[in-house]
Amino acid sequence: MNWTILIRQFRDYLKLERSLSGNSVEAYEHDIVKLKEYLDLTATAVSPLQVKTKHIQQFLEYITELGMSSYSQARILSGIKSFFMFLMMEEIRDDDPSALIDSPKLGRKLPDTLSYPEIEQILKEIDLSTPEGIRNRAMLEALYSSGLRVTELVELKLSNLFFDEGFIKVLGKGNKERLVPIGREAIKYIMMYRDEVRCHMAIKKGAENFVFLNRRGNKLTRVMIFTIIKALVKKAGMNKTVSPHTFRHSFATHLIEGGADLRAVQEMLGHESITTTEIYTHLDRDYLQQIIKDFHPRS
């Protein structure tokens, strides 16, 4: 069997049997494709059934020379290990060439965050005299106010805004829904966008319930959110790499630094546990809302 057939079967397995999200499936596939590309590049014409431990080791040495971080290497190796485990499980191979390869040692890397003045600095660069400016301010306020993932932001629905109660409903990883408190500033700008901008747009069929739309009336993409933030950071003259996830990290960091309960932040972020061994703890919604009011800088 060739690479194309087995990678397709691996995708089906991840999607149907392991119920992974589309983004996770693509990430796993990307890891295997990179290995294949390396083997093609080095004229090592081997099929997935012929890959040996030395091929994988040489590939890891190659991406190390490219300057790839140990975190990225560990993630790619994890994808490769999953692929060969799948081949063994399906009895396509009777051995795992990646079994004896250890992941690179990882140092503890703290996520990048923005200070509250830096958050305000970025927000001030948004031109509120334009429809896109009002939309962008609403999006960034939502990211920072509720700690949303970028996918959760682009998938946010009008029917899931419960502003009277101070919550929004988001669809997180593994298609798990959760209610997240949302701050006053985010509510203010989302309502401004909804009631003054969005209501005048010609909306594409199928996008009627999505909160944030592009100029053509269609749902925004993840890439567009990254592009908008990158442009604002550059405009603000900040020499930092800032992504939508930076706002999420900043949300959590500012709450914890302000004294918020770790379990409350855990639930708002949609993490099932603070560590891999702790059980997910459901907390009272009024308590979560109070945490936002007491400890979030924009509440």
How would you describe the overall organization of this protein?
The chain has 299 residues and is mostly helical. It has 2 domains: 3-89, DNA polymerase, domain 1 (Orthogonal Bundle); 116-295, Orthogonal Bundle (hpI Integrase, Chain A). The protein is 53% helix and 4% strand. It contains 12 helices and 3 strands, in the order αααααααβββααααα. The chain has helices at 3-17, 22-41, 53-65, 70-89, 116-124, 131-146, 150-154, 184-196, 222-235, 244-258, 262-269, 285-295, and strands at residues 161-162, 167-171, 177-181. Strands 1-2-3 form a 3-stranded antiparallel β-sheet. The protein is elongated and about 60 Å long. The N and C termini lie far apart (58 Å).
Kindly list the characteristics that best describe this protein.
single chain, 299 residues, mainly alpha, DNA polymerase, domain 1, hpI Integrase, Chain A, 2 domains, three-stranded antiparallel beta sheet, 12 helices, 4% strand, elongated
